[in-house]
Amino acid sequence: MSDAFLSIREVTKRFPNGTIAVDRVSLDVREGEMLSFLGPSGCGKTTLLRLIAGFEVPTSGEIWLAGKRLDTVPPNRRGTTMVFQGYALFPHLSVFENVAYGLRVRRVSREDTTRRVERALGLVGLVGLGTRQPNQLSGGQQQRVAVARALILEPALLLFDEPLSNLDAKLREQMRFEIRALQQRLGITAVYVTHDQAEAMTLSDRIAVMRSGRIEQLGGPREIYEAPATRFVADFIGRATFLPGKVAEAANDRVGVELLGRMMRMPVAGALAVGDAAQVMVRSEAVEISEDAGDGIPAVVAQANFVGGLAQYMLRAGEHALVVTVPTEPGSIILAEGASVRLRLRPELLRAFPA
Ligand SMILES: Nc1ncnc2c1ncn2[C@@H]1O[C@H](COP(=O)(O)OP(=O)(O)OP(=O)(O)O)[C@@H](O)[C@H]1O
Ligand SMILES: [Mg+2]
What we know:
This protein has helices at residues 45-53, 95-105, 110-123, 139-151, 169-186, 197-203, 221-226, 231-236, and strands at 4-14, 20-30, 34-38, 60-65, 68-69, 80-83, 157-161, 190-194, 206-211, 214-219, 241-251, 254-259, 262-267, 277-282, 287-290, 297-306, 310-317, 320-327, 340-345, 351-354. It is of the alpha+beta class. It folds into two domains: 4-232, Rossmann fold (3-Layer(aba) Sandwich); 241-354, CATH 2.40.50.140. It has a six-stranded mixed sheet with strand order 6-7-8-3-9-10, sandwiched between helices. A five-stranded antiparallel sheet has the order 13-12-11-14-20. A hairpin with a 2-residue loop joins strand 11 (241-251) and strand 12. Bound molecules: adenosine-5'-triphosphate (ATP) and magnesium ion (MG). Magnesium ion (MG) is lined by residues 45-46. Magnesium ion is lined by residues 45-46.
């Protein structure tokens, strides 16, 4: 057996209306690992999470947690707890009672409850706020109450469904770091659902990129960014321009592609043979822009924007357009719109996909 703590095996969920929300998904999560389901709206993230939690029953396949098959175990006996997008706090109960709720249901003693609630509030930075009502808290504080309420049950597996999407951008970023730090400090095993790639990158040991109920790629944040398995993943993670090219050579894991009038040898994902049309991923870090006339690819700066520490250029090379973001030094010159430049592409950072 593998070292899987949570094991999802060939799980399919077909709803009565015929929608196949999860389609033969298999995946293992290691103990102490944080894994994200990342993908566009409707790809099946929440459904897969609800299957793990026991709020939905798989049409076929098996789910195992800590060596036990879960399929027939009711949600409250699975050792999982879920943090929801809307927090789902009880509005009429104090912060203390919200956090204590799960312990009360389990008839934990008064003394033990107080001790554990205080500890949970301490973990999420809410000491002293136990007597407030949820409507007397900021969004970020409510979010922390929801996390404390889940943590206090000491779940074997913590499940998050877009828990930060109600917060503003700055707070969201801060809470990402907090949740990640807490998860690592306590050694919690967690599955985290999001459609926000930056959130998934910050929080996760590994990311499962989902599309139409299937896992398109499973890997570490760096791996899925630098070596996307499909064009969909390349497009969904980070920013990239895709340029059309034609395969002129194919050998092992490299292809020679005619691109912008040049021949370039680059990594390839998927099957490409000589003569095939390719789509080439061009990320900003693959592009060097030079103002000197040289042997680079001629291009024109069609648009130039300063976006705080970064300059964003829309470059036109013949009939093609590519968007490139480059860091700016304080006081450095931003290229002017209309300027003629030369581009050099770093072939090792390009990636060819079947068109
Ligand atoms: N109870 C249901 N009955 C029928 N179809 C459903 C049900 N719940 C979800 N679906 C469908 O299953 C698919 C996956 O839904 P799901 O909620 O898992 O997506 P998601 O990835 O979480 O999306 P979002 O990012 O918008 O939350 C969608 O097509 C959705 O309409
Ligand atoms: Mg969802």
